[in-house]
Write a structure and sequence with these properties.
584 residues, alpha/beta, 7-stranded parallel beta sheet, 6-stranded parallel beta sheet, 21 helices, globular, disordered C terminus
Length: 584
């Protein structure tokens, strides 16, 4: 089958989110073809280039989110009115304005029932329907006029937002929006809606794939939603971090109006995406609960754990006896969410009971904030643990060391886990704990805080304590340091669990099964024509999705239904497409 893989800020670029698992997925399903549609987040990311692509990547199309050239599209009076109606209705939904109170005429694209106000009997349309109608109305306008970039960046868009914020019934946070807030929100919405102006859903693009797979929520889902709405292509969404939750965590300092309006947009977009998707997968139960709360039906939800490459940890995992019995290790990115301050205070309690214990903190700082936090932790460690010496004529040594992977003592991350008796995770915020899985693959006993998906991952093979509780963390560490047999049992059980649930092989197998499940339920979306242009009976055999390449001449295909821009000249199924194609 042919899969359209939709990414934002990651694969196929060298840096970014979802790069590793997408590359492993594509390479692991070599019997299928992949068309990659990638949105880049920065000029630096584009300058770094792409990773080497698998041979089954049929083509790559890219578009930037970090900049947009003016499309030089000038709307006529009718197009301006349609834009005002659609964007005004979307803004009204984000502000919480009841239907009809925003002054817009309404947008009727969801279906026949919308002609009666959203549901049979003339009842007002729900907010979900109003948002969807506005979204697809803007998409149709972009296809007919050639783009929306100029319109979304115009003064008219800001004035539409302002009217919605001042309309009767708007939320308090929206009513308090200032001009600077409106400009910020308008800029975010323009970037988020930029995929509406791309030509990715034509018959030779996403309209020709068997399945769209969005590698994240948010903006990456939009091309799949359009392909689903206009040409009926099945849609699958995978989230290892729920976009709405990320927005709440990363925008605490934004003005209330900006935070409220953008959270409303992310929430409405997520609800529409979950409603239209055939299957929604989460990387853990924690993310799955967020998806369900945002509107995903339980019947659509699947849990597919991230796949880790177990080979780099095999040697350490199969011979765990080389570990130092008096060493604790923490591995990860240095940032405030990892709560190394609590770890250092817990280690002070450990030293009171086990004076020979040492702590190795292994990791690089995450950005400027991480660098400042690392400096603070170094200062605290120097205060808590003055350099100690065995005698008056020997140099002192601090029991806490700060190191990075790649040095002579720790050439690889597996060497860090091999050097310790216990691996410690002290985070106060965590999604899927990759470092914890790495420790499990190495057969290391672990002590972790109860955050994110930690309990789900550890599954009884390690000790779990409350976050921000140095005393409990210290007691758990001491109990394992004093009981080597228990450490060995927990480490062996943890490695067995990780090999069973968190490997690349199980991840690829799970996605392959979901692909086949979705395609088996998908209706035939295209009519096959013979040489005279007439429908050809029995032209698509049952083996149409078997991963082979047919040598016979390909019949012509045409869309069965869709908007005007999708009903062009029929195309051939095996039209040659360049292996790498960029769209700027």
């Amino acid at each position: 089958m042919r899969i359209g893989l939709l990414t934002e800020g990651g694969y196929p670029y060298v840096s970014g989110d979802a790069r590793l698992w997408c590359d492993r997925l594509v390479r692991g399903l070599a019997q299928h073809e992949f068309d990659v549609y990638a949105l880049s987040r920065s000029e630096h990311q584009e300058d770094e280039g792409w990773i080497p692509l698998s041979p089954n990547v049929r083509r790559v199309r890219t578009a930037p989110l970090w900049m947009a050239e003016d499309d030089e599209v000038v709307f006529g009076r009718r197009a301006r009115r349609r834009f005002t109606e659609c964007f005004g209705e979307m803004a009204a939904v984000l502000c919480g304005v009841p239907g009809g109170a925003s002054g817009t005429a309404g947008v009727l694209t969801r279906g026949a029932s919308d002609a009666a106000g959203g549901v049979p009997g003339g009842a007002p349309a729900s907010e979900a329907d109003r948002f969807a109608n506005a979204l697809y109305g803007l998409a149709e306008l972009a296809r007919e006029e050639g783009g929306l970039v100029g319109a979304l960046r115009s003064e008219a868009a800001v004035r539409i937002l302002e009217r919605a914020c001042r309309a009767p019934g708007a939320h308090r946070a929206a009513r308090e929006a200032r001009v600077a807030d409106l400009l910020t929100v308008a800029g975010h919405l323009e970037r988020a809606l930029r995929p509406l102006s791309l030509d990715w859903c034509e018959d030779d693009g996403l309209g020709a794939v068997d399945l769209c797979h969005a590698a994240s929520g948010g903006t990456a889902v939009l091309p799949g939603l359009l392909a689903r709405h206009f040409t009926g292509v099945p849609l699958m969404i995978t989230e290892y971090g729920v976009r709405l939750r990320t927005h709440y965590l990363t925008a605490p300092d934004a003005p209330p109006a900006v935070r409220s309006l953008l959270a409303a947009f992310q929430g409405r977009l997520a609800a529409e995406a979950y409603g239209q998707a055939d299957v929604v997968t989460a990387g853990n139960t924690h993310a799955r609960r967020w998806q369900e709360r945002c509107g995903a039906g339980r019947e659509k939800l699947r849990t597919v754990y991230p796949g880790m490459d177990a080979r780099p940890f095999a040697e350490v995992g199969e011979s765990p006896d080389c570990a130092d019995p008096d060493t604790l290790v923490w591995v990860g990115r240095v940032e405030p969410a990892k709560d190394l301050v609590s770890l250092l205070h817990a280690f002070a309690e450990v030293r009171k009971q086990e004076p020979r214990t040492r702590l190795r903190i292994v990791g690089a700082p995450a950005g400027p904030e991480g660098a400042a936090y690392l400096g603070h932790c170094r200062t605290l460690a120097a205060q808590l643990f003055p350099d100690e010496a065995e005698g008056p004529h020997t140099a002192g040594d601090n029991p806490v060391s700060f190191e990075e992977i790649g040095g002579p003592e720790l050439p690889a991350v597996a060497d860090a886990y091999a050097s310790c008796a216990v691996t410690v995770l002290s985070s106060v915020v965590e999604g899927f704990p990759i470092g914890l899985v790495e420790a499990m693959l190495c057969g290391s006993a672990t002590v972790s805080t109860d955050v994110g998906a930690v309990v789900e991952v550890i599954g009884g093979t390690g000790l779990v304590v409350p976050p921000r509780n140095p005393r409990a963390l210290a007691e758990a560490c001491v109990s394992l340091l004093r009981d080597p047999e228990r450490r060995a049992r927990l480490g062996a059980a943890a490695r067995a669990r990780a090999l069973e649930l968190f490997t690349v092989e199980q991840n690829i197998e799970a996605f392959h099964g979901i692909y086949l499940e979705i395609v088996s339920r998908a209706p035939v979306r295209r009519v096959v024509l013979d040489g005279a242009g007439e429908p050809l009976p029995f032209a698509v055999p049952a083996e149409a999705h078997v991963p082979v390449r047919w040598a016979a001449a390909s019949p012509r295909l045409t869309a069965r239904s869709g908007p005007g821009w999708a009903a062009g000249r029929p195309v051939r199924a095996t039209t040659a497409v360049p292996a790498q194609e960029g769209v700027r």
